[in-house]
Amino acid sequence: LLIVVISAVENFARRDLIRQTWASPHFVGVDWIQIIFLVGTTLRQDQIVQERLQKENVEHEDLVQVNVVDSYANLTLKSIALLHWAHGHCPGAQLVFKCDDDNYINWNVLSKILPNLNDTRSIYGTPVPTLYAERWKKQKHYVSRRVWPWPRYPNYLLGGCYAIAGQAVKPLLAATQTTPFFWIEDIYLTGLCASKVNVSLQSQPKYYYPDFPEKGQLNACFVRTTAIWQTRSLKHLAKSHKITSKVYSHELPCIPKSSRPVSKCFWGIFC
C-alpha cells in the first residue's frame, strides 16, 4: 500500500504534525504501508526553503520533489507526477492513495475498508454530486466555454483523497499522455483520463468525509465510522488525532443520539 500525501513545499509544520500523528509508525502499525510526501517548488526557487527541505529529507527520507511550482492550478501536474513515481518506484503496490496534506487518516476504520477495495481497474473515493461546469468568474472552479464548451463534466471523484488500484496506475499514466491538460485535477484524472481507459469509479461508504467536521461533530461516533476526513488547520488536525486516540483507548465512548438521556432543560434554561 502506497500513500502519497500531496503537500506544498513550504508546509513544513503540517508534514511534521502528520509524521507525529496518523503517519507515525506507532499508529500505522505495519511495515507494508509506505507513506511519502510529494512536493513541488516555490515560484522563485527560494534557496533557503530548498535547503530546509533537503535537511527535512535527510532526517525523514520520505520526500519526493517534482519540478512543478506549487499552486492550485498545478495540482493536475503533481498528480501526473504521482503516477510516474508510483509506476517507476512502487510498481507492486496494490493500492495507491492520493491524499492532500489537510486530511486525517483513521487507520482503525480504513483497515476494515481496505479488503473491499479489490477491483484491479478502479479508483475509489467520493463521487461529486454536481457535474455542471461553473461559469461565474468569481467561482473557485470557474471554467470558460472556450476551455470547456460542454455544460457538464464526466463523472469524477473528489480530489481530496482517493485510492487508485495498482493495476490502474499504468493505464491512467498512459491516458495522461494523450488527454489535453485540464487544470482541475480531480476532473482531469478521475474523470477524463479514467473514462478514456475504462477505469471505473467506485464509491465506498464512510471512506472519505470531504468537509471539516464542525464543533460537536468530531466525536467518538464520527471517528468510529469515518476513515478519512478533512481538517481546517494544524490545530484541527491535532485535535482529530487526540480524539481518535481517546476513542480507541476506550476513554471516549460512542453514545448514539437515540441512547442519550433526554434533557429536562429548555434550551439549557430552567433546569
UniProtKB/TrEMBL annotation:
Q: Which Pfam families is this protein grouped with?
A: Galactosyl_T
Residues spanning the membrane: none
Q: What family does this chain come from, according to its entry?
A: Belongs to the glycosyltransferase 31 family.
Q: Which GO terms describe its biological process?
A: protein O-linked glycosylation
UniProt protein name: Hexosyltransferase
Q: Which UniProt keywords apply?
A: Glycoprotein, Glycosyltransferase, Golgi apparatus, Membrane, Signal-anchor, Transferase, Transmembrane, Transmembrane helix
Lineage runs: Eukaryota, Metazoa, Ecdysozoa, Arthropoda, Crustacea
This enzyme's EC code(s): 2.4.1.-
Task: Indicate the principal place this protein occupies in or around the cell.
Answer: Golgi
Q: How does it sit in the membrane?
A: Single-pass type II membrane protein
